[in-house]
Design brief:
- This protein is of the alpha/beta class.
- It has a single domain, classed as UDP-N-acetylmuramoyl-L-alanine:D-glutamate ligase, CATH 3.40.1190.
- It is built from nine helices and 13 strands.
- The strands form two sheets. A nine-stranded mixed sheet has the order 5-4-1-8-9-10-11-12-13, with helices on both faces.
- The radius of gyration is 18 Å and the shape is globular.
């Protein structure tokens, strides 16, 4: 198995299935379903990696509360190595309220304790033995930079999930691969079209970069040009966590030695299967066999 170190946020999500996304503060909305499930970009990516047959290690910061206990218990039960998850006694763990409508679109409200220490000196200087790739999100840049440097030192692939902007934009240069959200790439480039925005960023980017564009697929750099890999067509039930599954699958594929186009296609298939299921990035994450079956069908 290929081992992937994921570093970033882990949350507990309360996911409400609703007919429509709440928009009127004076109106009461009723949910027709509710689940409580772990979330967070890095943690859900780690869960996806484990489901896909990889070996996932999660480095994250949690509180000393019951929420933190439950987050670790769920991840450990899924096969994620949480030995690098540190709990801080006087802090509260991240959690989210998520509304998912009948079209599969979602509204997410997150809470993260601002008193959680930013210091990353407790992280190891070297990666765990047999690590084949590193995946980082944007929630803990200080810790991510430390682990991305460790990946560069041993020459293995590293991926940043660029779903939001960070104060220091040179952060996105620290990984060998960056997959941006549409919103992030357009804001970085000051252009509304994600393909054109990626093309502009690619002129100065020192690494491989991509943008995930939902049902329109993924644009990515390839030999000095912008290439495209279409999305797999599925009936969308819930898009929550689809990006997390995509990034986890991408990091695993690159760690396994897949070429970049093949890795994007593999990640697209994993994300599409997740979108066809309710339950965020944890309950909806597909198995390796399911992804390979979809790849064969779409060949």
């Amino acid at each position: 198995m290929t081992k992937v170190l994921c570093i970033g946020i882990a949350t507990l999500d309360y996911v409400y299935a609703v007919d429509e996304i709440p928009a009127d503060a004076q109106k009461k909305y009723r949910a027709y379903d509710l689940i409580t499930v772990g979330g967070g970009t890095a943690a859900s990516a780690a869960n996806a990696i484990a489901k896909l047959g990889g070996e996932a290690v999660l480095a994250t910061r949690l509180g000393g509360d019951a929420v933190g206990r439950d987050i670790i218990a769920e991840l450990a039960a899924a096969g994620v190595d949480c030995t690098l998850a540190r709990r801080f006694a006087d802090c509260r763990s991240p959690c989210s309220a998520v509304f998912v409508d009948r079209a599969g679109e979602r509204l997410v409200t997150c809470y993260a304790d601002e008193s959680t220490p930013d210091d990353a000196s407790w992280l190891p200087d070297r990666l765990p033995d047999r690590t084949g790739a590193v995946l980082a999100d944007v929630s803990w840049v200080t810790g991510a930079i430390r682990m991305l440097a460790a990946a560069r030192a041993v020459g293995i692939p590293s991926v940043i999930d660029g779903d939001r902007l960070v104060a220091d934009r040179t952060y996105f240069d620290q990984a060998s691969h960056v997959a941006y959200s549409t919103e992030t790439v357009c804001e970085l480039a000051g252009i509304g079209d994600p393909r054109k925005a990626l093309e502009k960023l690619a002129r100065r980017a020192p690494n491989w970069i991509a943008v995930t564009d939902g049902p329109r697929g993924v644009w990515f750099t390839d030999a000095g040009a912008i290439a495209h890999e279409p999305a797999f067509q599925v009936e969308v039930v819930d898009t929550l966590g689809a990006g997390d599954v995509f990034h986890g699958a991408l990091a695993l594929a690159l760690g396994e030695g897949m070429g970049e186009r093949a890795a994007v296609r593999f990640a697209n298939a994993a994300a599409a299967l997740k979108c066809s299921r309710f339950g965020g990035g944890r309950l909806g994450a597909p198995s390796r066999a399911e992804v390979e079956a979809l790849l064969r069908e779409g060949a």
